[in-house]
Amino acid sequence: GNSVTQMEGPVTLSEEAFLTINCTYTATGYPSLFWYVQYPGEGLQLLLKATKADDKGSNKGFEATYRKETTSFHLEKGSVQVSDSAVYFCALRTKTSYDKVIFGPGTSLSVIP
Amino acid sequence: DAGVIQSPRHEVTEMGQEVTLRCKPISGHNSLFWYRQTMMRGLELLIYFNNNVPIDDSGMPEDRFSAKMPNASFSTLKIQPSEPRDSAVYFCASRHSGSSTDTQYFGPGTRLTVL
Fold first, then answer.
1. Which of A1, A50, A108, B39 could form a disulfide with A57 if both were Cys (CB 3.0 to 4.6 A apart)?
2. Closest chain B residue to A95 measured between Cα atoms?
3. What are the distances in angstroms from CA A42 to CA A14, A16, A80, B80?
4. What's the pLDDT at B42?
5. Which long-range contacts (C-beta less than 8 Å, at least 24 apart) are formed by A54-57?
6. Are B42 and A106 an interchain contact pair (Cβ–Cβ within 8 Å)?
């Protein structure tokens, strides 16, 4: 079946450090891939997305590249800020799953000054 | 835009009581989703509707859970009777199915505590 695997957290980084959160997926066909972010006490928000192989999604300094050969969609940011502290969810949606989005377990990030 | 609206934001109830969670999707969105989030199980899709019709309710835990969408601007998730293991944050999300974007817009969630 379709699934998403993320690196386990929590991840703790100092401000301005480089961030990578690994995400790999299993899916039939060619899914659309997403990163959602959840700030404390809030619902999830779409951070970025990619809909086909080699696409790069980017937003707010974050970026992720759709790698079909390694079935991965790793999230990166060159210099994190305290305000980036949140839980990050990798997710996929297949063309055959209609509206159903499958989320990974989430990775908690804490950025300390 | 008001975004997805959920009420109440917090609910504390006793085991055995009926609980009703409410959701107003973004105007114009025709798909609506109910999720449950816990530390142990993460984010789980309970049910989703398209054009007010339930499409997939395979995530609904058991018969104590039911969801309705009587019109395009309102949905409820009901738990009767509630149990302590139902304690979680329940999110509603909506989307315009058929649009070029895939974004689901989440509400702020209802934190349910069953004592």
1. A50
2. B102
3. 23, 24, 20, 26
4. 86
5. A57/A33
6. yes
pLDDT over 70 (residue B1): no
Side chain identity, residue B17 = Q
Contacts of A43 in chain B (CB under 8 A): 4, 91, 93, 106-109
**Per-block mean pLDDT, blocks of 10 residues, chain A (113 long):** 89 97 92 94 93 94 96 97 96 78 93 96
Quote the tokens at residue A91: 């997710």
B46 to chain A, closest Cα gap in Å: 11
pLDDT digits 0-9 by tens, B66-92:
999 999 999 999 999 999 999 999 999
Dihedral angle of Cα A3, A36, B5, B93, to the nearest 10 degrees? -20
Amino acid at A105: P
